[in-house]
Amino acid sequence: MNSQNESMADSKTMVQRLARGELSVKARLGYVALLLVSSAMTVGLLSLWLTEAWLPLRTHLAFGAMTLIAVSWAALAAWALTTWRVLFARDRVMAGRMSVAFTALFLAGAIAAVFCTGEAAAVAAAGTGAVMFGIALRVLAGARGRYEALSARREVLERELAS
């Protein structure tokens, strides 16, 4: 009987260890790629921005916004790669929020361009921005749903392990 209790304790320990595991290889490679691409974008944007001092103020603002966006994606990737506990889709929720914020910024800029210039290119950019914003909202909703499902599943498993 004692060996059965030890076996159950070993099983619980193994399940708990698995639950605290790291990112999957696929997710890890995705975040490494995101970190590399966003870092390269940051360096490229900064090198262009710093070597073109004569640009108008609105261009400087655009370079600053794009640089902050690239740094934000790099920070998300670095956080996900260095977090030593299961993320339970929190990374997806954060990425979804960032996507919504950044596409909203793009859409606002495109709408401002439509009102300032009225050009067809600005209208096309606003339309593209509206589509991207809708997609970003859908991605965020899916990420929140995944997070809630995983959190509920985790609570069920914790209750089962505790009993």
Characterise the protein shown here.
With 163 residues, the chain is mainly alpha-helical. It has one domain. It is built from five helices and no strands. The protein has helices spanning 2-19, 25-51, 57-82, 90-117, 120-162. The longest helix is centred in the C-terminal third of the chain and has 43 residues, at 120-162. The radius of gyration is 22 Å and the shape is elongated. 13% of the residues are buried. The mean pLDDT is 88.
Tally the helices: what do you get? Answer: 5
**Tertiary shape:** elongated
Oligomer: single chain
What Rg is obtained from the alpha carbons, in whole angstroms?
22 Å
- In percent terms, what proportion of residues is strand? under 5%
| Number of beta strands | 0
Structural key phrases:
163 residues, mainly alpha, 5 helices, 87% helix
List the helices and strands and how they pair.
Layout: H1 2-19, H2 25-51, H3 57-82, H4 90-117, H5 120-162
Helix pairs in contact: 2-3, 3-4, 4-5
